[in-house]
Amino acid sequence: MDGHQYLEAAVANGATALVVQADRREHWQPIADANPDTTVISVEDTRVALPQIAAAFHDHPARKLTVVGVTGTDGKSTTTYLIHAILTAAGHRTGLLNGVEFHVGDEWSRNETGETTPEADVIQAKLAEMVAAGDTHAVLEVSSHALELHRADQINTQVAVFTGLSDDHLDFHETREQYLAAKLKLFQSLDNHVPIFSPREAGGDVAERQRGAPRQAAVVRAEDPLNPTIAAAHNQHTTIVTATPDTAADVSILASAQDATGSDIRVVTPAGALGARLPLPGAYNLGNAALAAGAAWSLGVGPIAMQAALNDLRPVPGRMESIDEGQPFTVIVDAAATGPALDLALQTLKPHVQERLILVFGVAGERDPIRKSSMAAAAAQYADHTVITNENPRSEDPVEMVKEIASHFTNAGGRSFDEQPDRRRAIQRAVSLAQPDDLVLIAGKGAEPTLIYAAHVEPWDDRLVTRAALNSLNNLPTNRLSQ
């Protein structure tokens, strides 16, 4: 939607200044002529102007914070939570802005925007709230859309973290090369970092105060094939991390034992090594933890704070989150919404399932079409029974989407499945099928607060819907039902 269509309404509602795009003159010139008292500011690109204006309006809050930005296809939200936990354990007042939640000062709130990374005016307002609340650090989940559309401009990133890249969002970026180019913008921005202390705030020798500030850094896994590309995208230090034994790295997270609920690990840094328990299962979460530890290390945080944060980790909402209502089988809600993410989740859980792995999944509408085939292929390979449903169909037909996914599923060799376009009924179906020692995975939405259709947005939470479905089963103990 082009906002220039609403200029007349804006003036009618009291706007006294308009920032407009030069190549939209046919929309704004008549309004400017008809309202000579209205200030009209013409810019080359209003998307570039918006973060500049928003940052200036809020007195450049990012310059008063140490900002860590996390980008990549999968694992961004989990990694931001882990970084937030480690920095907090190190004694830093740390804000968080990701696709699930905001943390400002001492308050947590849901991200109700429907966007992984909100629009620039929302970001700058939240950063300003963090500064006002006394936060000194901020951790942001930064999507490729946000980088391409300038939402993440003016965030003054000091540490940039790369979780990896797989094919996704090609409906928007068109090619994998353009998708990667968008991600690289976060790392290129390291070279444009503005010192935290502005001359107005320093009250003295700014250069002297800056000598003690941590240097900018990129954080990437040693095993990532794009490691050299990330390192070449900026002129700053690159922190190399790993979750693979016998791989040279600055920081390592190495597992000694793994199960369906997490891993016993050793956190290895140049300052020493300590044992900890990571309450998130899977090798990919070891990688997320390594990235988080690397980001913290880049900011001067040592292994003691890393150990404390991981041992006392707040549950990551909708990321391999166990749902326990006393049922004799395991239920996990996870946000895996791409083929590679679902494949990893299923690979991680399959070895720990004693009986059947029952899967509920759908594919988001208006997203890269490859998700339908890649997620269906993962389900066909690993799940013993699958309930195919919807996940934010948006403008696509919910029934037809399920049929298309089912076609991909059977083409990939899948046999045992149900089609249920209604996601609530799909979850109810899955838990009603489960027997003792089965594992039910509800995949795709995690802790997202809405279910998006073409004509309406429905309040939603896979975790709450799953708990209600479990509590409707007749064989649950009465004492658990009352809790």
CATH level-4 homologous superfamily of the largest domain: Mur-like, catalytic domain
Oligomeric state of shown chains? single chain
The third-level CATH topology of the largest domain is UDP-N-acetylmuramoyl-L-alanine:D-glutamate ligase
Give the neighbour order of strands across the main sheet.
Answer: 6-5-4-7-3-8-9-10-11-12-13
Give structural notes.
By secondary structure, the protein is α/β, with parallel strands linked by helices. The chain folds into 3 domains: 42 residues, no CATH class; 260 residues, UDP-N-acetylmuramoyl-L-alanine:D-glutamate ligase, CATH 3.40.1190; 161 residues, Mur ligase, C-terminal domain (Protein-Tyrosine Phosphatase, Chain A), CATH 3.90.190. The chain contains 19 helices and 21 strands. An 11-stranded mixed sheet has the order 6-5-4-7-3-8-9-10-11-12-13, with helices on both faces. It has a 6-stranded mixed sheet with strand order 14-15-19-16-17-18, with helices on both faces. A two-stranded parallel sheet has the order 1-2. Helix 3 runs parallel beside helix 5, helix 4 packs across helix 12 and helix 4 packs across helix 13. The longest helix has 16 residues. The chain is globular and about 75 Å long. The C terminus is likely disordered.
Write a brief caption for the model.
This protein is α/β, with parallel strands linked by helices.
